Amino acid sequence: MSTKDFTANVISATKVVPDGNFKDSKASGIWDINEALDLIKGGNWPNVANINPAAFVDGLFQTHVYVGNGSSGQSITNNLDLSGKGGLVWTKGRDSTNDHHLFDTERGVTKYLKSSSSGVEATDTDTLTAFNSNGFSLGADVDTNADGNKYVSWSFRKQPKFFDVVTYTGTGSARTISHSLGSVPGSIWVKCTSDSYNWAIYHRGVDSSAPEDYLLYLDATDARVNNSSYWNDTAPTSSVFTVGTSGETNANGETYVAYIFAHHDDDGGFGEPGNQDIIKCDTYTGNGNATGPVIDLGFEPQWIMIKRSSAVEDWIIFDNMRGLVVGGIDPELRPNKTQTEGTSVTYMDINATGFQLTDNNSRTNENNSTYIYMAIRRGGMQTPTAASSVFAISEAGTNDSPTNNFTIGFDADMNISTTTAGNQKFIVSRLLGNSFLKTNADSAETSQSDASFFGGPTGTIDLNTDFFATSSSVVSWSWARARGYFDVVTTKSTNGNVNHNLGVAPEMVWYKRRDSAQEWYVCTAANGVLKLNTNAASAGSGNGSYLTNAYGAQVTSTTVNTGYNFTAATTADMIIYLFATVAGVSKVGLFTQSGATNVACGFTGDTPALIIYKRTDGAGNWHIYDSVRGIVAGNDAHLFLDTTDNEQSSDYIDPYSGGFATTSGVTNGDYIFYAIAATS
What we know:
The chain has 680 residues and is mainly beta. The protein has 7 domains: 3-51, no CATH class; 67-157; 163-262, no CATH class; 279-377, no CATH class; 387-479, no CATH class; 486-579, no CATH class; 586-676, no CATH class. Strands 1-9-3-4-5-6 form a 6-stranded antiparallel sheet. The protein is elongated and about 85 Å long.
């Protein structure tokens, strides 16, 4: 569809949208995509970066971890429009043996079902008390909000080609039920709300030829059941699904709710290019090996639900907010049980295009057993327009509790922290759980037993560990992964390319081997390799850029070379950090110092939030400055990423409109730099 034709359709659509919430697309190129996507099919829309939120998984699904406060009125802000668009909220206590509670907008607030029970719909006015335009509100019930208890919620917003909720009354005769998914469902969950029947689950992967002949029970461990009375042996379509005569799906006079999930196979139509998948319902066969099957989703998952369909076994759920850890334990919950969160098994490793099973347990990888799964794509599909949504500075005594648990306002994927009094420069990543590295050292990855860096409430970073305890001199910098801005990938191979989700070719890449002592290597698009843990000059400059030449680490918008030449090993556990320029948000660049120099970054205002620079043609430390400790005319507090030195104060940089200025105190030479725009 051409831009002209799409715009014409949008303008036409405004005539029939009830709330009239469109802007003039001719004038601004911006419209309310929530309604537009319901009306206009086909995707490939222009200027998608300005369309929000239904083009992106972030506006349709959220995992939110929180701590109960035991009082009515706790609001969970997950930025999903549940009151206006409708959807499902699913909650579970992580450290208590309460039931899974499922609330949906079709049945209304305070009414819930339990995934572990065949029981009827219950009503409790002190559970979920409101669906909001940016999340939901809770009462004081212990199942959803006990004081001090830990909880997780999974919220699904209704949207064509992603998720739908319908209710109906049974007739006892085979019939069709209309839905608004707009695509053939990948999975359908039906529960009788007025009588005690099992949850009936249709899943497209439960049989290779006729999945409509079978069902599973969400509240039980049973293997698949072949019975025509559930779906009448009739496959669902993009507008209806069929129910038979079973009480689980269609008893006369009984009421039902159905949760309907899409399946994408290179036809999702989401994301900035308008052609990306965000949900997958499929199957795999276990091999009973610690080197398990590789599941290619075409995207990195943030939420995975698995069931062994060929034999008796529990359902199991994972998500990246509680932890989908590469090489570490993956916390799990089981929808058919009330048990607390399990934290003892390394089930899988996730990657940029899917996941690989890493344990031979029967829940996920029994030899020759068949498993069905549903997976939802990780967020960060949209290029950021404000630095505050993807970067935060935290300093003890400014915006933290006394325990160095910082509220940063988004879910961090990487954090660097230290103290101004002189300390290691610790770097932690969500993908690595409670393990850490040091930017100032070549040491291997270490696990911090008392850490829960990313396991606290959503929007926080927890540095309350043996690193710092309650030190008041902590400073930390947090990044979120986002298209075009920043990404993190891991790999076990160092002899080839690894996929990433940056969406553009990276301009700066940090490489670190995790399983043994190996120096940090930093490559940019215009010079040879540097080492993050030393002040040494660029090496290999005669070979040009290590990011673009045939000898080194070639990069594209989808892959980056794993840096065999850096590790001298064909297999090794590595982590790779990828950085790029986003107009008005971040800047990777070069400058040549010859006296005072003005460095343009294209930012609004004259005080960036962060500046990192390093001399490339001679020795020089990795300087790091931030706006919380001060970027002013005169002396500026700064630290070094490559040392444990105390905070220094020197007049090396000054404010400069749209970027920063170096003073004559900076040694003449060639430099690389990385800057992030102001966050407030």
